[in-house]
Automatic annotation (TrEMBL):
One Gene Ontology term of the molecular function aspect: phosphorelay sensor kinase activity
Enzymatic class: transferase
Reaction catalysed by this enzyme: ATP + protein L-histidine = ADP + protein N-phospho-L-histidine
Positions of the HAMP domain: 233-286
Gene source species: Cellulomonas pakistanensis
Name of the protein this chain belongs to: histidine kinase
Keywords linked to the UniProt accession: Kinase, Membrane, Phosphoprotein, Transferase, Transmembrane, Transmembrane helix, Two-component regulatory system
Domain Histidine kinase: 301-533
CDD domains: HAMP (cd06225), HATPase (cd00075), HisKA (cd00082)
Amino acid sequence: MTTTSPAREAPEGAAADGGRDGGARGAVDGVVRRVRDVWARTPLLARLVGITTVLLAMGLGIAGTATTTLLSRFLVEQFDERLVAANETYKEHVGEVYGATGSLDALKGTYAWGAFDYALRAEIDGDAVEMTPGPSTTSKYGEPRLPDLDTATLTRARTVTMTSDVRGSAWRGIVTPIVSKGSTGERTVIGYLLYAEPLGDVQGTVRQAAILLWTSAAAIVVIGAVVGTWAVRRSLRGLREIEGTAAQIAAGDLSQRVPAAPETTEVGRLGAALNSMLAQIETAFDARTRSEERMRRFVADASHELRTPLAAIRGYGELYRMGALTEKDQVDDTMRRIEQSATRMGGLVEDLLALARLDADRPGRAEPVDLAVLATDAAHDLRAIDPTREVRVGPLADAPAGAPGAVGDLPATVVRGDEARLRQVVANLVGNVARHTPAGTPAEIGVGRVGDRVVIEVRDHGPGIAPEHAARVFERFYRVDPSRTREGDGTGGGAGLGMAIVAAIVAAHHGDVAISQTPGGGATVRVALPSGAPADTPEGDGACPDDARDHPTG
């Protein structure tokens, strides 16, 4: 027969206990971590106000509880003193009646039973009599439930609290022993006297005091929370100003500084430290020469983008030199590929030179340019590239609903700038629509005025662009699809310079460009430029050549 060793069982039990203890500790640690996480995410304002409010509520709660308790104890002590005085009076009278008659029945004729607001019970040598309160008392406080007492255990007077048949109403009484002296002077307890009165008045007073105290405490807590919130918010106003300044600095305005505050305060010392740091940062940025940055970026970008087509041309040339191309079709295909690579290189060089000229801040021609004309010409170009595509040109607010190709009555759309560069902006935007949306997809070009700026929007209804790409689409050499390159005749995908050129030209004209989602799907590129003609001039009235405003694009 196989037996289990107790020595072997003990470690298993200990391991189980250890596992349970470890699980409990893990659960506690998890709760603590969650509490810490919530506390860490709580704003400082909420922390300070919350702590202050909780401490105020706890203090008022303790004070209210102590006050209510002391008041109740004081009133009960006064009540007990009255009970003792009344009990002594009735005890003396009961003793006289019993001593004279030997019975307690005589008491029934002495008192008008049922006419009092108290209860009385007397017992001597087994002879007992009870006096109940009157109807006016019992209807309000109920009839007390008098306890049965054992005279053998009653050696001294004591108080007793009793319930009644009315919920929440209590009676309080005092029980005193009735003692008889023997011939030898020995004292023997032969009975007792119980005298009780309702505690309703005491309870009502304590209840009203408690309601008053707790109501006042709640009001004080609410007022304290409101005042505390105001005070803490006012104290943290300096931090909010620092936060606002930091947001402006993050947006690119390094000239911003934190408002000065007394350095005797924490906020003042923090602001002084931040201002010192910001001054050093701005100095460092100003010290960086623009020419070095432009040259570095130009060389790095150009070498990276030109490496692939140059390698392709060299490879095809080596194949031809080695005699690997024996068939005429192979030679023709190789020449076609070399031409494609050369075309791509030419486009890259032209784009890079355009960016270099823009980076050099060379002033271009400043002449009135009507964006409505550029929009109409771009619509014609897009219609020529894809005859199946419906292109609409119209006022900025209702371009999608306008007649195809009709400009209509537009507000002031004249800007001052280099017409060739601005045409390149619109051409690049329209070219993106042609390349990156399916054939036949409708497009709209809206022109209008927003405040003191003239705006042109190019909208498509293609697949659109994800938000993470929209934030970087104007960076140089950034492609939404890194695998996309120029295809076929060199007009397919791009090297990621088209939108960068758009952004550079717009910036040179002191404007801004942004991309967003088109309602219903697609991408919308908005270019905003400073107005070049006041509203009361012919250009400002939206004047535009007749052929630009009246001719449909398709």
